[in-house]
Amino acid sequence: MSNRPKLLFLAYYFPPVSTVACVRTWNTAMCLTRLGWEVTVVTPDPALWRFAEPAAHVTEQLEHAGVRRIFTGHRWRFLSNGHLNRNDRGLARLIGGACRKVARRLDISPAAGWNAAVAEACAGLQPGDVDVILATGSPYNAFEIARRLARRLAAPYVLDYRDGWTVGHPYPPRPGFPMKRTMRREQRVLSDCAAAMIVSSSNAKLIAEAFGVGDKLHVVSNGYDPEEMRQVVPHDFGHFAIVYTGHFHPPWRVVDPLMSALARLPVDLPPWRFHYYGRQSAYVREAAQRYQIMPNVVLHGAVLRMEALAAVKSAGVSVVITTVSETNTLADRGIVTGKVFEAIGLGSPILVIAPPGGDLETILETTGSARRFTSTDIGGIAAFLS
């Protein structure tokens, strides 16, 4: 056991917290463990999260796999984007809102309070305790934490981009993003890292051109865990189910193209329903009412991961939307959302709304189970669903 290489994995989002980012971080930890690595995950204490799945099952799986965790605290939770528990009452809500607004303008990460917490939690580690440090982002201050730890522990560090930071960002947080200061921070962590992973070749090209680190970049796509997929029990809808799970990001990722297509479906089709699983039920309800299809829409709200996977496994069609942008830039084409792989792993037919010629389309061509349409091809989407 002592000969196994030792990995310190900085993963801000990690189960039991309930976010899509956890799919990649969980799969990374589990698969590296199966490949012979001794993995220790550094992550905030589960009690700090606002939305989390039952922790006992996660703990049991990690203990069975041999994955260790180092739990951290978290300062400045008032900067959180809503995932962390924080005081949202009275004066604290007003002050917190003002601080978050200032932080966004200054490109200060909502997770900035994690930096000192990680240093405290890892203070007992000494050189030789770790062979490699892996940091996944966002939040991207995890990259800077890895750089500091790597110097102290005399170990190389590797960066894992789930999305672009300052270039290739699919949904820019504000006009004028990024600031030159933030780009210098990214240049610094890339210059000193041993390697960096990115989910798509388009984003790899953007980062390589911007920072001159093409020799360090490796495309490691998202994926799915076959063992987890085998445990999913299908849900019996009793009708043709069109399923969407997860978040929308207006104005880049919106439900309108799908709603418009659903409104065009012939009335003589067999019974069908659109099922939405996620925390934006109010947004989906408003769109369904606007397109006058609310009787055919079922809003499930936030559910446990296994329930969402059961819905995808039983879907007549699983819907994935990357962006409705018509710019079709490299950043647009580089979006390779993780949830499409779960639909692939579960054998669900997939409807993808995305720009043409993207990296995701190249991946889907190998499966034979998906069709892609632009956001303006409402007739094509409706015909496919029919």
Notable characteristics:
386 residues; alpha/beta; 6-stranded parallel β-sheet; 17% strand
Largest beta-sheet characterization: 7 strands, parallel
Beta-strand share of residues: 15-25%
The secondary-structure class comes to alpha/beta
> How are strands sequenced across the largest beta sheet?
3-2-1-4-5-6-7
Beta strand count: 13
Average pLDDT score: 91
Low-pLDDT sequence parts: none
Tally the helices: 15
Shape: globular
The sequence of SSEs as H and E is EHEHEHHEHEHEHEHEHEHEHEHHEHEH
Fraction of helical residues: 25-40%
Describe this structure in words.
The chain is α/β, with parallel strands linked by helices and 386 residues long. It has 15 helices and 13 strands. The chain has a seven-stranded parallel β-sheet, with helices on both faces. The chain has a six-stranded parallel β-sheet with strand order 10-9-8-11-12-13, with helices on both faces. Helix 6 (180-192) links the parallel strand 5 and strand 6 (195-198). The protein starts with 5 loop residues before the first strand and ends with a helix. The mean pLDDT is 91.
